[in-house]
Amino acid sequence: MRLHTIYRTTGSENRKARPEWYSKSLALESYLGSLGAVGDAGDLVFVVDGPMADTELVRLRRAGEVVQLDGVGNSSSYRWALDLAYERPSWADDDLVYFAEDDYLYRPGALPALLGAATRIDAAAFLTPYDAPDYYDLDVHLRYRAQHEHDRWDVDGVTWRAVRSTTMTFAARLGALRSVAPLHVLGTRGRYPRDFDIWSGTLTYAHRYRLARSLPYSPRTTRVRGPRPGLAADARALIGRPPGLLIAPEAPLATHCEAPWLTPGADWAALAAGLGNTH
Hints:
Blueprint: E1 3-9, H1 24-36, E2 44-49, H2 54-63, E3 65-69, H3 74-87, E4 96-101, E5 104-106, H4 110-120, E6 124-127, H5 134-137, H6 139-147, E7 152-155, E8 158-162, E9 170-173, H7 174-186, H8 195-203, H9 209-213, H10 231-239, E10 245-249, E11 254-256, H11 268-276
Parallel strand pairs: 1-2, 1-4, 2-3, 6-10
Antiparallel strand pairs: 4-9, 5-11, 6-9, 7-8, 8-10
Helix pairs in contact: 3-7, 7-8, 7-10
């Protein structure tokens, strides 16, 4: 199993509430440091949506392959990344592909731990290093946790358990992702991916109606169509069994860098300060 990664980024910043220590540069530094700790990683692709400063592009090109899009937007850039993973012939079905957004901070061992979990936990088709606060206080997650209380594994000191949903930063066994790609295309109609709806359809047959409900979110289709595997594959995605579980750690391996959504249990400011002191 090889770990391929697709990092979606832009040259601009939005107005979301951010911790004082946050910057895209530090987020990237933490990601590259954690990926470097994996050792024999596969391809690293940066999908840059819209203009970016030349100095930043040079930094990305030194680290991996860079693909530039012309400002297609969040949903379309994810569809483009999904298309890349679906079509790249050198990426095997039993490989792991990691989709990263550019506003996450990683501990050095985050991606090695994720790869180790994928190697040891056959029931997991999808994995995330993000231990979201919602997992501990939102009813839908608490109910799912109760239903899957036995779906827990300890791998190298980290406890992993089945979770109900995550963001669009996640890893997938490529064969599993290819089997549900039509659901991810449905869930990205409109400007932003509807991540809860996407994971509802991916993980739970009974909740695929959520993807149908997502169609009215925007009258516009996205600029990128995404994978088109054909009617038979579309039908299998819609009526077939979920390909496996989504798992997350009960540990602060990585955090979404929005003030309300920081992963509990870690001093992220100290980690960011340490990264900043390396330059």
